[in-house]
Amino acid sequence: MAAQPAQGHAPARHITRKVLVLMLLLSTLLVGAHLALVALSEQFVTVRGDMKPADVMIVLGGDGPSRAFKARELWHRGLAHSVIVSGDGDCDYIRDTLVEGGVPAGVVTTECLSGSTRENARFSTPLLAAAQARSAILVTSWFHTRRAIATFAAACPSITFTAIPSEPPTTLFETAFGHYGPAIAKEYAKLALYRLQDASQDPWPDGGRPEWCEEGRE
């Protein structure tokens, strides 16, 4: 009697192919979702203000080079006469970049303790009040602008805040798969958390809001 071909490994090979197909499908869906989040960041997490002068320009730390260069550009356009650099980590770098680029050292104030957007707003507010600012330009990354504006406006309602951000890379692929990609994806969650939690909380629970920032102040 002729020997029958072995069939023992066929089911295992079939299962392996199914797993590979599912993994490929899942990877494709994840990449597609990531690209969609990046492509839609302009619509959902970004706000842009007009190129109008303001009393103060606030440069937020976190992406030092691009934000510093954008702030330097805006200074030379005459959009503000004083600058606050806010945020730990790259605070000194941003200040030095501004000064090396022609911004007078005497108009740059640093706040190098804040480690979050909420702290950026709280720690910068006394400086804004001391300057009696009525308007301020926020310089941050484009995908951070919506949350930054909301946070600063809650901290000091009497000041009009405008965002003029640093710009994304030139291609969607470079933006999505460079160092900005993960930060953009996380920003959706951070913005959602702000709307669900932070927006309902008093940014000054200890009652420390400067009088200058009281809502409705003339």
TrEMBL record:
Family matches, as CDD domains: YdcF-like (cd06259)
Residues making up the signal peptide according to the UniProt record: none
Protein name: YdcF family protein
Domain DUF218: 55-188
GO cellular component terms attached to this protein's record: plasma membrane
Domain of life: Bacteria
Gene3D superfamilies in the cross-refs: HUPs
Transmembrane regions listed in the UniProt entry: none
GO biological process: Gram-negative-bacterium-type cell wall biogenesis; peptidoglycan metabolic process
